Amino acid sequence: MEQAVATARPKQISSRSGFAFIYALIILIEMPLMATMSIDGANNWAYSYSILIIFNLIIQTIFLYRTTGLVNFLYAFVSLYYVFHFGQVIMLGLFPWYEYDYVNYITTYMSRRPEYIKETMILCVNCINLFVLGALLYNPKTVYYKKKSGVTYNYKKVCKYAFLILFSFRFLLDALALFLSFYFGYEGTFDSFVPGVISALGVMGYGIIPLYYLSLDQPKKRNRFLIFILLYLGITMLSGNRAYQVICIIGIFIVYVSQNKITPKRFVLMAFMAFLGLVFIDFIFDMRGEGFNAFLKSNTNVYDGSSKNVIFETIGSFGETIYTPYLVFENYKAVSPFWGECFFKSLATIVPDVFGYFKDINNEAVFPKMVSNGHTIGGSFAGEMYYNFGYTYYIPTIFIGYLFSKISDKVSFYIKNNKLDQVYLLLPIAVLFIWWIRDSIGNMTREIVWLWILFALLKGMFIEKRRI
């Protein structure tokens, strides 16, 4: 038997429905506007789109600040979407004079089909607009804690053992990646031939780290763990992989800021650490092309951050995601997926494919594998929406924005109120959801379901009290 207990939530600063209506009007204005914007060979289009993109980001930031706040997983998703999908567009449009070190995918690969550049830009702008619209349509009123009167669980132990299990797989994969990168370079990490089951458990390890940090109730334990995990994530970046570690750090940051008052001194310290982090991330980008070992042995490739703008380099190097939706348009007719294909086929990934019976269907559930044309590419939330739903992506994108807004709101509320029993499953899902910006539903479904199964098993092991 369950008892619903109403709990007051922080008062909303403004009604979300009003902001949703205003933003819907903005979207209706922008859609025909983008249809008239041409793609020219001189890259003047990039300037026009950069202005539009920055305008949208500012408006979305203001609207979300007034409704949901900015220190949450929803805004993390929105802001990182702009970096990953529009980073190179902004660099090309606003800073064409800048001599960058990264590969500009727009001028190098995408210029062969200008008509697909236009389709890609319209898709990417529409997707984040519709996602935010869906987020604004979610209007929370009351949160109910559902307490089971018959059984209580030791959620601190559940989180502890979930962390120990999943982090052990994460450690093994990171050690292997560092070894391969040291001897074979960053591209060598792609050829590790790690079974999909192990890889999925390792990814889940990233999602569990912020939860374990939250489960520690003593400040000294939290501080020690924070120092340890930041050093660990920094060391593992030496393999050349950066994105998962950044997402994990953002998750920890959200938990930390949600439960601690940020004084001016702390703000300055955090800003300084963030800058050092950008410098380190840029160093990783320079190093991974040759591999850690070769980079250190080279006398001509000693890192000199003073000669570059680390913010520009980070935005540009992360902004290569724009190439994935472009490839979707370029290969869509050849692949011809059915409506929602990856979402349906991702259900097959839940069952470990020990004997390889589901190899084809598992590959088809991850859309980048179907459109890559031999390139090593990551996923894309915008590319996912069009690949699965074609020009009907509008409604699914709004729905997903609504759903994640609900998840993010609950996670923030439970973190602030220190309700570990309510947030233990939602927090890792929120962390993994952010990575959907650069991933595919074909990978996420398995990880989310396996997390639910793992927590269910651990809860059964750590029952504190039964009542008859």
Rough outline: globular
Average per-residue pLDDT, rounded, comes to 85
SSE sequence, one letter per element? EHHHHHEEHHHHHHHHHHHHHHHHE
How would a textbook summarize the main sheet? 2 strands, antiparallel
Spatial strand sequence of the major β-sheet: 1-2
Strand content: under 5%
For the terminal residues, how far apart are their CA atoms?
12 Å
Question: From the alpha-carbon coordinates, what is the Rg to the nearest angstrom?
Answer: 22 Å
Helical stretch tally: 21
The share of residues in helices is 55-70%
Question: Number of DSSP strands?
Answer: 4
Uncertain stretches: 1-8
Q: By helix and strand content, what is the structural category?
A: mainly alpha
Summarize this structure briefly:
This protein has a domain at about 155-315.
Word description of this protein:
This protein has a domain at 153-317. It contains 21 helices and 4 strands. A two-stranded antiparallel sheet has the order 1-2. Strands 3-4 form a two-stranded antiparallel sheet. The relative contact order is 0.15. The model is unreliable at 1-8 (pLDDT under 50). It is mostly helical.
